[in-house]
Amino acid sequence: MTDPWVALEPGTDPAERVRVLRRAHETFTEVGTVPRPVRPVVADSWRRSARAGVGPDGTARVEIADGDLGAYRTEHPLAPVMPLFRELLGSFATDGEHLLAVCDAHGRLLWVEGHPATRRKADRMNFVPGARWAESAVGTNAPGTAVAVDRPVQVFAAEHFIRRVQPWTCAAAPVHDPRTGQVLGAVDITGGDGLAHPHSLGFVQAVARAAESQLALLGPRRAAAGAPELAVLGRDEARLTAGGRGIRLSRRHSEIMVLLARHPEGLTGDELLCALYEDESVTPVTLRAELARLRRVLGPGLLASRPYRLTVPVESDVAAVERRLATGAVAAAASAYAGPLLPASLAPAVVRLRQRLADGLRGALITRRDPDLLADWTHASWGEDDLEAWRALVAVRPSATARARLAALEAELAAPPGWPRAAPR
């Protein structure tokens, strides 16, 4: 095949190809080997699906309920380009009895639109907004696999891992943040066998590139028009976006910005000293010098004194997680949580905030008992030793890997002091 990412070569009989793929799929699910006619991209995806514990008779689960979905979609970075997706793909989907779908970077469907009759059929397999279509959850499928491999991909008929999806054909392409290169999600077109044509893959890839171009144009203007944004989760040094420019702050300046962003009324010098320094011998002169340096970094007009305060509201990723938790949007909160707040910081107030945020999200995940969300948490670096989270995961998804990791953690907890730690997963 000239292009391994295209499902059918020109001139291939789709019906015969379906019969071959069904036999290959049965062989793989029965004995674990992939016959030669299966494309390498699909074979690799089948193997990943099996390792993730996906069964061929499984189904997608709705992970984000209606109440959470609206807030999550509104704040998602792909929301500004939905009008573009509808303009370029909407009529194509409706006229061709297809569906336009957009997922996030975790494979959760955010929008599913198109021909009404096709939507009703898709509803029966939970191809609906809020459902998780990650490859690790439902196996090989275009949006989930495109996100997994970060490549545009077609999935034709019985190339899908789950049998109930095999009547469908889809093509999807990942969409990236034009500033960071991070995968934001994928845009997908789903329908019948006709979508296996090479043009559909090229079309959806072109739409994804157009969306990235529009995001590049929108990003600087939005940053300049809106409040400054502070990113502090999962990183030791904050990134402040203000006035269309990104500023990387030192660790101490990052801590100061976190505290001032949380206290728009301002903090006195003594309050900042207590919040920032464990060492009581640190003098106000040291703090004033740090604040003077921070003022030069930020530029004129953003940092005021008596008390120390920011002159405009600053939006932070910490506040976004807290808002979602407060409204019960647990899946959205977990998606926004990029890691612990300034993990290397020893500033007393930052340590308290870091622990409170992590405990709040962790508790919400355990209460929610969603196996996919718990798996995401326990397989992240900050959750790999979280005993209670592993116990919660084993209670709802008792895989061999999860049980083994839980047993290792419990053995470590029971071991006398000084014994070697359990080996990592």
Automatic annotation (TrEMBL):
Residues 244-310 form the OmpR/PhoB-type domain. Keywords: DNA-binding, Transcription, Transcription regulation. Pfam families: GAF. InterPro entries: GAF, GAF-like_dom_sf, OmpR/PhoB-type_DNA-bd, WH-like_DNA-bd_sf. It comes from the Bacteria. This is GAF domain-containing protein. The lineage of its organism: Bacteria, Bacillati, Actinomycetota, Actinomycetes, Kitasatosporales.
